[in-house]
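Blinded run. Sample ID left blank on purpose so nobody reads anything into the name before looking at the predicted structure. Input follows.
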Amino acid sequence: MGVSMKAAVVPVTPFAQNCSVVWCEETGQGAVVDPGGDLDRVLATVAENDVTVEKILLTHGHIDHAGGAAELKDKLGVDIEGPHEGDRFLLDSLVETAAEYGIQGARNVTPDRWLKEGDTASFGPFTFAIRHCPGHAPGHVVFIQEELRISQVGDVLFKGSIGRTDFPYGDHDALIDAIKTKLLPLGDDMAFVCGHGPPGTIGEERQTNPFLQ
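Blinded prediction complete.
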């Protein structure tokens, strides 16, 4: 691929969730991944880098990933794509969840397009393959850019850890299966940005992640 992608990670909400602004260095066309809140900081990053946001992408429906999506959609006039429809119940209860955690300004949201296994999502010159990776949340999806060897994995996989599965709808076995069958085969050189903490590579996690041994 003859174009390059840039990304800026903006920690949002009290959970320090990694909202990502990603864009084409040549054209400025971009997307915002998982705008959980603190939209002033997200929009400042968009402006500083002269990004033309074409869409909002959601990996899953948890408050720290999706709480600011409806407001950001209104501000930018763009569509929301993702997650899988299995997370509808989470997106329908964001206001309620925000109140439990003392998070301000969250709104319930319905994506313009639900995503499923085998779909693609595009902005600018980039196309991302969609993998449905339940376990942490029933509708969790992962965005994979094969040519540039970069992926947005939300809370499926972390550097040295995996997503929580102690929610009533969590499923540890499903999460491990998704990682082993859908992420590890991407190849050791595939880099990932996760929902919390530093980025990593599939190869490093294959070798060192205690949950995958």
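Unblinding after everyone has recorded impressions. The domain at 5-208 is CATH 3.60.15.10 (Metallo-beta-lactamase; Chain A).
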